[in-house]
C-alpha cells in the first residue's frame, strides 16, 4: 500500500472519529434532554395520579354525602347504585337486593313517568319532574327529579343518573296552606249548615286525593250522627246524599270518634271489626272530630281503597280544618236551631193571636152581658126609690145608696177588665206621639185639686207608638199620685232622662207613700192598697202591661208618708 493510500485512510479514519465524536456529543445531549423529559413525565404522572385519586375521592364524597338522593341505573331501569340519602328515602339496600325503578312508580303516575323516561332517552336529560313514588314500606312520597344519561367515550349511552329530592313535607305544607285558605274563603259569609259542610267535603277530598269524604253532624236529641254532606259516589246528580244513614253514636269508627272525641287513622279496615260498609268497601279510613266548647258537634270522615293510605300529616291537616270550621259550623247549627224555634214560635204566636182575638171577643161579650143586668138592677133601685119616696126610712135609703155605689164599682171593674184585656192587642195607630202635648191634654181631662201642683221638669221626647196607650200609662200614674196625696200642699213632678237606647221616665209625688213590703204586689191585677171606692186595683196592672208592651221596665222607690216615685223605661 502506497503512502498516498495510507494518508487517504488516515484522513478517512480521522473524519470518522470526528463524526463519531460529534454523534456521541449529540447523543449525550439528547440523552440528557430525554432524561430531563422523563423526569418531568414522571413528575406529571405522579401529579395526574394524585389528581385522579383526589378527583375520585371527591366524586365519591359528593356521591355519598349529597343531601338529596342520588340514583344510578342501567338502561333497563335496574338500580346500580344508591347513595345514603337514596337508601334512607326508598328503604332499599341495593347491595343486597335488586330494585327496578318501575316498582317505585306510583301506579296513577305511571304514564307520566314513562313519558319522562322517553324524554330522557331522546334529549339525554329531563328536569323538574314531579311525581309520587312508593317506598319499600309502601309509603307514598312526592319527589322532584333531575336526570341525565351517562355516556361512554364514544358518546354512546350506557347508564342513567338522577338526583331525587323528597318534597313530600314541602308539598304537604303548601297544600295545607292552600287548602286552609281555600276553605276559609269558601266559608266566608256562609251560614247555611249544608253549604258549609259541602265546601268542607270538596276541599278535603281534593287535598286527600280521595273519592270519598263525608261530614256527620251530631244529633243530641236522637244520640245519632246525621250525614249532611258527601263527596264522590255518595252524591246524586243534584248533589243529594244517596241512601243517607243515621249512625248511633258509639257505632262504627265514626261513631267511636264522636263518642271519644279522639281522631283515628285506620290502615286496614278489614282488620277492624268496628268498620261499617256504607256504599262500598275501602281499606283506609281517617276520622276527625269537630269540637266546639269541649263538645263534639260533628265528624269529618274519609276513606280510600288502598291500605295504609292516610298519613299523620293528613291527620294534622284535618285537625286544623276541624278547628277552623268548628266555630262557623256551631254558628250554623245555632242558626238552624233558632230557625226551628222561630218556626215553632211563629206557630205558637199565630195560635196565641187567635186565642187573644177570641178572648177579646169573649171579654166584649161578657162585658156587655154583665153590664146589662147591672144597669137593670140600677134602674130597678131607682124606680123603687122613686115609687116609695117619703115612705123609706134613713137606713133603707142608705142601703139603696150602698147598692148604687156597689153597682157603679162593678161596672167600673168590668170596664177596667175589658181595658186590661185589650192592652196586649196590636196597636192600630203607631205614630209619633209628643208627650209634652199629651201631658197638657191630660191636665184638661183630669181633676186636679187646687192644693196639688203638677210640674214637668224637662222637655219630654217624641216617641213612636199608640197615643191611647201612652195616655192610659201617664193618666193612671198621675191619677194615683193625685188620688193618694194627703198633704196640704201636694206636689207631682214628671221627668225624663235620655239614655243610649231608651228613655227613663219618673213620676214623683209627696203623698202617702207605699210600704216596701207591697212594692212587688201593687202591679198585680185586683190588688188595691187603699180602701177607695173608685179604685178597682187594675190601674197599675194596666201601666205595667203597657210598659212591657214597649219592652220597658217599671219599678218604684217609696217611703210611707213621704212620697213615691214611679220609674219606667220606653225603648227608643
Span between N and C termini? Answer: 163 Å
Please provide the count of β strands.
18
Query: Can you give the helix content as a percent range?
Result: 40-55%
The secondary structure category is alpha+beta
Number of helices: 11
Sheet with the most strands, sense and barrel status: 6 strands, antiparallel
What is the alpha-carbon Rg in Å? 53 Å
Q: Major sheet: order of its strands? A: 8-7-6-11-10-9
Question: How would you describe this structure in keywords?
Answer:
572 residues; alpha+beta; Beta-Lactamase; 6-stranded antiparallel beta sheet; 5-stranded antiparallel beta sheet; 48% helix; elongated
How would you portray this structure in words?
Helices cover 48% and strands 22% of the residues. Helix 5 (193-208) runs antiparallel to helix 7. The chain has eleven helices and 18 strands. Strands 8-7-6-11-10-9 form a six-stranded antiparallel β-sheet, with helices on both faces. A hairpin with a 3-residue loop joins strand 17 (554-559) and strand 18. The longest helix has 76 residues, at 312-387. The protein has four domains: 1-62; 66-166, PAS domain (Beta-Lactamase, 2-Layer Sandwich), CATH 3.30.450; 172-342, GAF domain (Beta-Lactamase), CATH 3.30.450; 427-571, Histidine kinase-like ATPase, C-terminal domain (Heat Shock Protein 90), CATH 3.30.565.10. The chain is α+β, with helices and mostly antiparallel strands and 572 residues long.
Amino acid at each position: 500500500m502506497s503512502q498516498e493510500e495510507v494518508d487517504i485512510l488516515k484522513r478517512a479514519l480521522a473524519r470518522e472519529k470526528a463524526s463519531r465524536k460529534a454523534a456521541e456529543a449529540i447523543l449525550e445531549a439528547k440523552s440528557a434532554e430525554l432524561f430531563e423529559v422523563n423526569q418531568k413525565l414522571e413528575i406529571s404522572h405522579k401529579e395526574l395520579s394524585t389528581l385522579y385519586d383526589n378527583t375520585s375521592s371527591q366524586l365519591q364524597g359528593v356521591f355519598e354525602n349529597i343531601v338529596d338522593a342520588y340514583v344510578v341505573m342501567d338502561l333497563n331501569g335496574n338500580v346500580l347504585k344508591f347513595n345514603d340519602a337514596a337508601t334512607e328515602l326508598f328503604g332499599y339496600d341495593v347491595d343486597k337486593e335488586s330494585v327496578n325503578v318501575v316498582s317505585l312508580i306510583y301506579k296513577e303516575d305511571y304514564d307520566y313517568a314513562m313519558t319522562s323516561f322517553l324524554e330522557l332517552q331522546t334529549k339525554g336529560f329531563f328536569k323538574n319532574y314531579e311525581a309520587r313514588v312508593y317506598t319499600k314500606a309502601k309509603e307514598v312520597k312526592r319527589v322532584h327529579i333531575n336526570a341525565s344519561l351517562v355516556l361512554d367515550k364514544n358518546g354512546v349511552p350506557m347508564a342513567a343518573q338522577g338526583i331525587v329530592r323528597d318534597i313530600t313535607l314541602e308539598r304537604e305544607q303548601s297544600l295545607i296552606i292552600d287548602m286552609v285558605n281555600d276553605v276559609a274563603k269558601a266559608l266566608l259569609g256562609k251560614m247555611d249548615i249544608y253549604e258549609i259542610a259541602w265546601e268542607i267535603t270538596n276541599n278535603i277530598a281534593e287535598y286527600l286525593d280521595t273519592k270519598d269524604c263525608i261530614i256527620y253532624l251530631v244529633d243530641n236529641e236522637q244520640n245519632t250522627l246525621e250525614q249532611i254532606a258527601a263527596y264522590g259516589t255518595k252524591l246524586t246528580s243534584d248533589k243529594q246524599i244517596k241512601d243517607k244513614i243515621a249512625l248511633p253514636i258509639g257505632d262504627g269508627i265514626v261513631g267511636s270518634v264522636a263518642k271519644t272525641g279522639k281522631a283515628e287513622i285506620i290502615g286496614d279496615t278489614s282488620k277492624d271489626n268496628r268498620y261499617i260498609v256504607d256504599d262500598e268497601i275501602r281499606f283506609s279510613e281517617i276520622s276527625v272530630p269537630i269540637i266546639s266548647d269541649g263538645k263534639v258537634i260533628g265528624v269529618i270522615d274519609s276513606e280510600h281503597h288502598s291500605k295504609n293510605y292516610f298519613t299523620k300529616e293528613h291527620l294534622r291537616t284535618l285537625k286544623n280544618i276541624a278547628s277552623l270550621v268548628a266555630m262557623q259550623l256551631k254558628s250554623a247549627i245555632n242558626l238552624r236551631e233558632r230557625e226551628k224555634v222561630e218556626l215553632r214560635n211563629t206557630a205558637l204566636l199565630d195560635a196565641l193571636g187567635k186565642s187573644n182575638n177570641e178572648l177579646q171577643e169573649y171579654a166584649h161579650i161578657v162585658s156587655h152581658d154583665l153590664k146589662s143586668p147591672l144597669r137593670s138592677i140600677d134602674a130597678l133601685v131607682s124606680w123603687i126609690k122613686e115609687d116609695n119616696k117619703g115612705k123609706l126610712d134613713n137606713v133603707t135609703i142608705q142601703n139603696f145608696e150602698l147598692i148604687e155605689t156597689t153597682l157603679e164599682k162593678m161596672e167600673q171593674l168590668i170596664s177596667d177588665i175589658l181595658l186590661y184585656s185589650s192592652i196586649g192587642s196590636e196597636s192600630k195607630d203607631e205614630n209619633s206621639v209628643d208627650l209634652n202635648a199629651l201631658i197638657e191634654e191630660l191636665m184638661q181631662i183630669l181633676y186636679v185639686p187646687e192644693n196639688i201642683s203638677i210640674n214637668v221638669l224637662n222637655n219630654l221626647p217624641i216617641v213612636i207608638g199608640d197615643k191611647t196607650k201612652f195616655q192610659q200609662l201617664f193618666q193612671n200614674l198621675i191619677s194615683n199620685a193625685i188620688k193618694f196625696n194627703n198633704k196640704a200642699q201636694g206636689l207631682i213632678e214628671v221627668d225624663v232622662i235620655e239614655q243610649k237606647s231608651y228613655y227613663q221616665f219618673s213620676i214623683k209625688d209627696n203623698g202617702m207613700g207605699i210600704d216596701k213590703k207591697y212594692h212587688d204586689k201593687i202591679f198585680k191585677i185586683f190588688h188595691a192598697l187603699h180602701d177607695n171606692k173608685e179604685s178597682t186595683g187594675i190601674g197599675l196592672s194596666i201601666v205595667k202591661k203597657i210598659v212591657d208592651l214597649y219592652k220597658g221596665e217599671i219599678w218604684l222607690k217609696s217611703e210611707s208618708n213621704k212620697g213615691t216615685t214611679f220609674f219606667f223605661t220606653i225603648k227608643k
